Amino acid sequence: MLALAKSGVLGVGWTHRERAAGGLAGRALRSVLATGLVTALAAGWPPPAAHAAQGPAAPPPQYRSAEGARRVEGRPSTADAPLLEAGVVYEDTAAPGERVYRLGLDDASTVYVSAVLRPPAGSKVGYGDGLEVEVMTSGGRACPYNPGRAGLGTDPVPLAAAGQRRLEEDAACQSAGTYYAKVTRTAAKDSDRAPWPVELLVMREPAPAGGTAPVSPPPASPSPSPVLPGADPVARSGGTGFNDARALGSGVWRDDLRPGQTRFYRVPVDWGQRLAAGAEIAKARMTRPYGSASDGLTVSLYTPYRALVESKDASYDGQQAAVTLPGTVPVAYANRFSDEAAVRPVRVAGWYYLAVTLGGKVGEFTEDASPVPLTLRVDVAGGPAQGPAYREGLAAAGFGVGAAERAAAREGITVPEAVAREDGRSVMRAVAGAGFGTGALLLLVLGGWFLLSRRQGDGGPL
Q1: Is the Cα dihedral 49, 51, 52, 58 positive or negative?
Q2: C-beta of residue 431 within 8 angstroms of C-beta of residue 438
Q3: Is-contact 77 161, C-beta < 8 A?
């Protein structure tokens, strides 16, 4: 690689013509491309499968943390509990027990506090392992509709839950002031007791403008057997978690899963729209005539604020398995006031997340180096409808669906890819600006040289 760079093949050796023409823009662009190629090759591109025979499979990639996440250390009680700010992603660790954080809330927004627990690969877990997130007053009383809960099964996979302070007339927890978020990790008797990474996020949903938000939920229920698309699948590789989930829209999508792996996808669902999704895993390469995993395939749906909407699983014997989630009700602000647990979470437009897990036990009877084919069917139907008018914009708070979200779903990009694309545009703008500035300087120099030559030829003063 160093020899290639020195030889100028990667554009590091500059020609006399480029220097004479003031080619700063060309050099900058070549430098960017060369750096990118060197980085890609150093990172292992192209992938080993493209130029080497398959060997033992590497462990599934771990959950990707958010860029710029802040370290924080929760406390066992409210004393000295650290402050969590809205819109900031935090990283902590959690052993079995409670971790407490402080919140400074206004009286004009609904606030969601989510936690994503990430047991390391190989951790021993069971059905007694779980996560609770509760928002409570400074007096220690839980706010209404708390805590948010989620539980593990037999696989150490990412798990998310969210607590809330919901705006509602004549309800508790409506005043501004100090509140606390309590994150509790529960553990089965024989489960791993070591601290696990946990990701924390506070999201603030502004209050609707006066009188614009209905409080009576629309008369709708989840669809138990939605009709899903049957088109030819398109390849889309899922992410490791909420931060790099692959964007999808309506359609049929193809991916691969290894035993114990969870893939994350995100779907923009606007006001008035329903989301229906299902997953299928095909025949695997078996290492023995028979095998079975009771929770071989699991599909979970999460809200834009990372609360669990629905989760279903199916057994898998290496031949075929499928899970179809009930179709959601149309997204509506008033759903939060519903008596139905499956309706209340579908309350705000934005990115909804699908997590698909292939059970670790599947690895006991399938080839380790051969991933299992996954087909994901997604249908977003209805709308979009007019949502409530908010006092502040939803997009800045991480909610809502606009042109950027729809474009991301069409193109299938992740958040890190979108950031890299924007960084690339910034580089190109800088390169273009540098090129323009260099060109202008070159014209001035040439003009001065031309005038100087004329004066010398005419015998004029220098």
Answers
A1: negative
A2: no
A3: no
